[in-house]
Amino acid sequence: MVELTLITPTFLFSAISLILLAFTNRFLSYAQLVRTLKDRYLEDHSAITHAQIMNLRKRLYLTKNMQMFGVASLLMCVVTMFLIYVGLHLISAYVFGIAIILLIISLSLSVWEIHISAKSLEIYLGDMENKKGVEIS
């Protein structure tokens, strides 16, 4: 096995930081959407609004977990760097492997969340198509 250097885990720093920034932006947009959906649901208890709320609940759960796994991955990279610094190269390789696995989990959750977000947009599009059909008829 090739020995890790201090530079190896730092390659993930910028990638993980950008991913966490994207996840945080997504989370902030969900916070605004929650406020909007709450107001809409208080006015009208429609099935579409209820479906959007249930969809958003899943997306928030996934986004929270995406962030947690991403932060854990970044933390494991820092631990890897420390272990390399103190000369524990074999342990550092395993910890770095854990960091990569955590990043893979975070990215996989992101793909799942994107799939659910697409379903949310399909709900809106379906509702618009139904309203358009009603107006024309």
How would the blueprint of this fold be written?
Layout: H1 7-43, H2 47-85, H3 89-136
Describe it.
By secondary structure, the chain is mostly helical. It has one domain (9-129). Helices cover 91% and strands 0% of the residues. α1 runs antiparallel to α2 and α2 packs antiparallel against α3 (89-136). The longest helix has 48 residues, at 89-136. It starts with 6 loop residues before the first helix and ends with a helix. The model has no long low-confidence stretch (mean pLDDT 84).
The secondary-structure element order is HHH
What portion of the residues fall into strands of 2 or more residues? Answer: under 5%
Rounded to the nearest angstrom, the distance between the terminal CA atoms is 70 Å
Domain count: 1
Q: Compute the average pLDDT.
A: 84
Report the radius of gyration as a whole number of Å: 21 Å
Portion of residues in helices?
A: over 70%
Q: Shape from CA axes?
A: elongated
Low-confidence stretches: none
Treating each run of at least 4 consecutive H or I residues as one helix, how many helices? 3
Based on helices, strands and strand pairing, what is the structural class? Answer: mainly alpha
Considering the chains and any ligands shown, give keywords for the structure:
mainly alpha; 137 residues; elongated
